[in-house]
Amino acid sequence: MKSPITKIAAVITVVCALIGSLWLFDRSTAVAFGQVIKNVTRAESVSFLLKQKIGNQPVFVSKVYIQDKKVRLDILGAQGQQQSVEQLQKEMQRRNLTSLLSMIGDFTHKYALELDHFRRTYKKTELDDRTVAEFTKANLIEQFRNVKQENAEWIGEEKENGRRIDVYLVKHVELMGIKAELSGDPGERMKVWVDRQSCLPVRILLEISARADGPSDDWLEYYDFTWNEPLDEDLFSLEVPEGYTFAEPIVPK
Length: 253
Description:
Layout: H1 4-19, H2 30-41, E1 45-53, E2 59-67, E3 70-79, H3 83-95, E4 101-106, E5 111-116, E6 121-126, H4 129-136, H5 140-143, E7 152-160, E8 163-170, E9 172-175, E10 178-181, E11 189-195, E12 200-207, E13 219-227, E14 245-246
């Protein structure tokens, strides 16, 4: 039987694959959106929070950091009314844990480190060229280079804390083998909020289902973006923290 942490890791792997799809959007005024593309592709770093609801899983909350060719994802915890979520939250408080699992990828040195903070174990993996190419697709800055101007339309303006925010609706997704024509209705759409002054995304909501029988309530929300603030290199360290032991592979019986 898979452990809760193993299941969480599997869900996050799916999320990493989907992260790249965030950047398939554009605006009806191509000149203005051209500046958005330039700002994102020139970004030196970005961090953001990610909430996700996939299938019967609870809502997981993660923090993502990207700088140069390095990525870190920390699973901060889960939200929901399930008894297992309540037990997990209490256990995290008892152990004084700020995250459950961390995944760090250094695509220059071609290594990845997975830290299970719950069990205090680690896995370190050498990445081949194919794997590096796949992980690179999860780099938001790199993936924005593939954006096409016809993939979205401007649908309005909002104000948030005195800022003017442009809102876009995406109806077409084509990335990493995923092709979908979205209706634009709730449950099957991507909405993107862009700060008009900085011309950078501040929030993205993706509602999409892999089910063949129609839309589901699966969704991913990316928010609390911080752009171009230098990130501590220690976040991307591949050194194993003191007290962590190697995670022995589980051999099926």
